[in-house]
Design goal:
Structural class: alpha/beta
Largest sheet: 5 strands, parallel
Number of helices: 12
Strand content: 15-25%
Helix content: 25-40%
CATH class of the largest domain: Alpha Beta
Number of domains: 3
Radius of gyration: 20 Å
Bound molecules: phosphoric acid mono(formamide)ester
Shape: globular
Strand order of the largest sheet: 7-6-5-8-9
Length: about 350
């Protein structure tokens, strides 16, 4: 089964092809309007969403297919204690493809092991959000005209920010990308992501100074400090407004800077930046999600019979390897097999959440 669990499930050639197909869909909507006639997308959202769920549903409807699903775990039998594995076993008998969001890291990998239909990760805890990354790459390609040779700043919650984790993994596939990670010390980019960059000699800088970093950037990817990921609310209150991008801070920015944000925003981009139409790309980015998700659905349905899922191929069962990450799906799912991944940096990591074992 061809699934999309992490961005590494697709090669650079496949990502570039998805970007081109998305652009073609934007310009030729009628050509695609019946391509999924008779197919059903299930959207299983165990966590809140506006853009991801609705753009997936809009995408399937735009391809002539149908949708079913839930937008809240409390309206599903999860609230009665049903396991994720049982939910997926059942729903994969009602649908042709499933897009799922879950609060636990690694949940889509568990789902892919049970499902009879392709699984798309629409966000798993603080881990990955690969379809967001694909629409981010589409946005960068449209805004800048290319993806290579860029200095990309990522600002805010880099520790729990699943969108930036997937985006760093994807941008590594492109030429001459430099990263600037802007965060408070408490919310720095995880070691496993930086280890990979170091093993590939990819340049990155860590700083907590947004204003000083802005003049060097071609792309600034702002993120929200995510209240829902903090166990200590006093820490959230202390950090929540640490970065606020406003018009004044853009004074020394490049004329062709692209400002991205996966949204929703709270205070981290002031509304006065919205008037900077050329540089403020975040609402165009959200709209691009509809077309990229059409391209993803088409690809996975077309390649349903292929056996190629790097996430599954790279992991091995090891029942001694219990993960200690409290956000990992292994903490809550019954009867789970423990999996490990041996990384190029020599570390052994949980096969679900990538936490060091
Ligand atoms: N960008 C994103 O994932 O937004 P939603 O949480 O609204 O889906």
């Amino acid at each position: 089964m061809r699934n999309l669990i992490g961005i590494e499930d697709f090669s650079k050639e496949e990502i570039d092809e998805l970007i081109e197909v998305s652009k073609d869909i934007m310009n030729n909507r009628a050509k695609y309007s019946e391509m999924c006639k008779g197919k059903i997308l299930a959207t299983l959202f165990f966590e809140p969403s506006t853009r991801t769920r609705l753009s997936f549903e809009s995408a399937m409807l735009g391809l002539g297919g149908n949708v079913l699903g839930f937008s809240n775990a409390n309206s599903s039998s999860t609230s009665k204690g049903e396991s994720l594995a049982d939910t997926i076993t059942v729903v994969s008998g009602y649908s042709d493809i499933i897009a799922m969001r879950h609060p636990k890291d690694g949940a889509p990998l568990v789902a892919s092991m049970k499902s009879k239909v392709p699984i798309i990760n629409a966000g798993d805890g603080g881990h990955n959000h690969p379809t967001q990354t694909l629409l981010d790459l589409l946005t960068i390609s449209k805004e800048k005209g290319h993806i290579d040779n860029l200095t990309v700043g990522m600002c805010g919650d880099l520790k729990y920010g699943r969108t930036v984790h997937s985006l760093v993994n994807a941008l590594q596939m492109y030429e001459n990308i430099k990263f600037v990670f802007i965060s408070p010390n408490e919310l720095k980019m995880p070691e496993y992501i930086k280890d990979t960059l170091e093993s590939k000699n990819i340049e990155y800088l860590e700083t907590n100074d947004l204003e000083e970093s802005i003049p060097n950037l071609d792309v600034l990817y702002m993120t929200r400090i995510q209240r829902e990921r903090f166990s200590d609310m006093s820490e959230y209150e202390r950090l929540k407004d640490v970065y606020i991008l406003d018009k004044a801070k853009l004074k020394n920015a490049k004329e062709d800077l692209s400002i991205l944000h996966p949204l929703p925003r709270v205070n981290e981009i002031s509304v006065d930046v919205d008037d900077d139409e050329k540089r403020a790309a975040y609402f165009r980015q959200a709209e691009n999600g509809r077309y990229m998700r059409m391209a993803i659905i088409l690809k996975l349905l077309k390649e349903e019979s292929l056996k190629s899922n790097k996430k599954e191929e790279n992991v091995a069962e090891n029942n001694e390897a219990k993960c200690s990450n409290e956000r990992c799906i292994t903490m809550v799912e019954r009867g789970i097999k423990y999996l490990v991944t041996k990384c190029s940096d020599g570390n052994v990591r949980c096969g679900y959440c990538e936490n060091k074992i």
